[in-house]
Amino acid sequence: MFRLLGALITVLFAIAVAVTTWPQFFRLEHTFPFAQIVALRGPLVALLLMAALLFLLLSLARPLRAFALAMAAVALIGGATGGAIMFSRGIGSGTLPAQTETSLRVMTWNTAGESTAPGTVASTAVAMDADILSLPETNALAGEAIAIAMRDMGRPMWVLHVNLAPEIAQGPDAWTTTILISPELGDYSVIQSSADGSSNTKIVPSAVAMPVNGEGPIIVAVHAVAPREDYMDTWREDLRWLGDQCADASVIMAGDFNATVDHMASFGVGDGQLGRCRDAAGDSGNGSVGTWSTSFPALLGAPIDHVMYSTDWKPTGSVVLRSFDQSGSDHRPLVVQLEPADALDSGAGVGG
Known about the structure:
352 residues, alpha+beta, Deoxyribonuclease I, Chain A, 6-stranded mixed sheet, 12 strands, 33% helix, 18% strand, elongated
């Protein structure tokens, strides 16, 4: 009887490990609670490896040996698989390559509203030579203060923003998303459907900015709703909408997606992970570095903030800035360096 019960428990444990390690194989990556569990792959790997060690210790007791060894094997395989996935996506590259004549640097930081001082954002962006800033939960006044501070430091920026309810004075900062764009990229404007909310993420806003003269990339500042149990359907709709925004060959999306690449699997087109876009951090060595929450070490956090790029661009480096964990926001800044794909293919963007 004990052997039968042990075998049943082992089988159920193996199923649970498989589903939480690779839920998209079972089409459960958008289902509560598997969506939440896979977002925290680092803690899951750590728990599985600790479980493997515990069961190995239990196997020293002769009556439990067969059961404990089987459970240890399942936990070890699950932990090793999850660890391999993390390593394949990158567990940390701390520097960016030298800039070239054609390079573009994109920084995203969910500032948690007034929790992060505009001067901190501005000095960080200037230090990183950012050309584009995507700032979810940053209101218009804070965005202007950041731009003024950057101008005073020799780095002028255009400021654009979307507010879900501009008629409400001092509404929640989560209702606003701000974009800063270097004038060197030309004039940009937020499209009307983003500004009026007729085509947008549902509860917190994203902003689609188009080049006025038709040249330059489409820039999407992203803020998707968090996958809380009551908002799962809305969260899926937000991800689908974001994938639809990445249909052009020259799109750069940056912001708080409230999703990892595991959640994007069913929305990719061709080689894309979300529409035609790919995750720049994952393609440059930082895909497993958690950007949320700053309360936990980076490899135990969730990589839910992204810079994504479509086929006209390629990433040459990225960095998750871990030195701002006490700055006020619960998100870490992410900076990515992109190059035009044709410049890299011709070698023109290398060593400039």
